[in-house]
Predict the 3D structure of the following.
Amino acid sequence: MAAMRVCAVLGLAAWCAALSEVDLEGGEWTEYTNLPYTVTIAEKKAGLMGLRFSKRETEDGGVVYKVEEHLKAKIARGPDSVELAFRNIIIENADGDVLLAGYTQKMATQEVQMQYNYISTPGSVDITSVSNGVALPSKVEGAVAHGRKYLFDRLGKLFEKDGPKDASMTVHAVKPEMGPADRRQEATLKASGQRYLPGLSVSADDLLDVYDITVEVEGMPLVISESYHYHPHTSPMPLLVEYEVDSPMGRIVASISTQDAAQAALDNDDARPELVVASYVKLPRPMHKLWMTSGRVEFLVSSKNGERLDLPNEGYQQVERVREGVVKAVLDTGAPEEDTMEEEEVARLYLSNSAMVDASDEEILKLRNKAIKAAKKAHNGSPTPEQLAHAARALTRETITTSNLATGFASASETARTKSGDCSEHAVLLAAILRALRLPSRTCSGLVYLEDRNGPNLAWHMWAQVLLPGPGGKQYWHDLDATFRNGQTYSLGHVLFGTSSMSDAEAHMSEIRIVSMIGNLNVEVLEVGEATCSADQS
């Protein structure tokens, strides 16, 4: 996967994901807050952010609120420069219940849009996810979904108490970039004082009240630091004045600014932050055997800070814990993981449609038919499920004619139409074609071996797994990588960190879960040899 997108999903998009252009029908919006921010990454100017609040009256005399966030940034990918744009919208009622949330993510010329529509029912929330014009219903059990203004209002109550340091509160609110469900967010007050704030202070001597907090978000491995200006008599709600996260690729900071200064940060022609090569895990020497399609390899994986590593036992990989912060990952193409789930659960997770893996889309069904035709032609009219899976992999590689790292995290149908993308688009498109073939599939996130001008490295990557029948009526998960050319289906140079069904609730979580590992890993290749064959596979 492109490291810059990982940074965007967790770092830049941790508070500013992206924006749907769809508003609720009727009424005129009245803007009452519009704030610009200057963005730096790894101490380098990268772009600008904006935060805007509007409201309007409803026909029944109530009020609904709209919170819009946007970001524009330019970052380096090796010697190249790529422009990113994210916009986000949440519409909520006066009680903070979300009515609509959505985002748009654009990288270079590629754009991804997602919208969530909410209807609260007793004990649950009915959600319709819309991507590329395809609507998919789902249900989230529990309380109503809360929005961004609701979160800000709750923070105001924390600041009003002016309590002791480490006073905290817990809020459940939607973060669209992490899916449609509420996320538990815990805010802890760390300090308060007064300081000069560009764009808000009327002079250098005008010091305003500022509260510093840390925020821990459910499912996000990094702690966010935020600062707010709030005075209940002069500001209707807390105003975000600084956002900071120590991401693995450098400190990301958004500081309140003037519009001119923020635009200047975007237009800045100085060196841009480089986020791809910086994420590589370096190896001491070339390991050409890792290009082999089949075999057995042992990796010793350790965290630099000693933190626990939870690599999965899935697909071809089995993991043995050596000590805290160190594991041995064994990849053996002769011993795939046996699936033990109930058939209904497999179908729910790995055969169903989602906004990202939209297997029922017309373009995906066309590709399914092409895969069937190719497999029948190659195998005398009666291809096995494995042969169908390999035909789907080859067709995915053939379909994506423009491979680049400047694509947003696109859905399968969008990729089928644009024929462009990087490893994530290959993985998602392959997963969709497999599901259209009624072969259960999931996407994988981890490291892959590569050699380029930067030397031998392991780079962050995505691929797919497919569930195939085996001896004794059992089923096994097999890895497939659609980015490989010349008929190669996989290589020994893969280290798996997580799998995902790519459901609407966890579409980006596979990236978010591994982001704390970027810059925090050492990997050693212990042994490369022949694949073994388990008793069930012999």
About this structure: The longest helix spans residues 362-378. The longest strand covers residues 63-77.
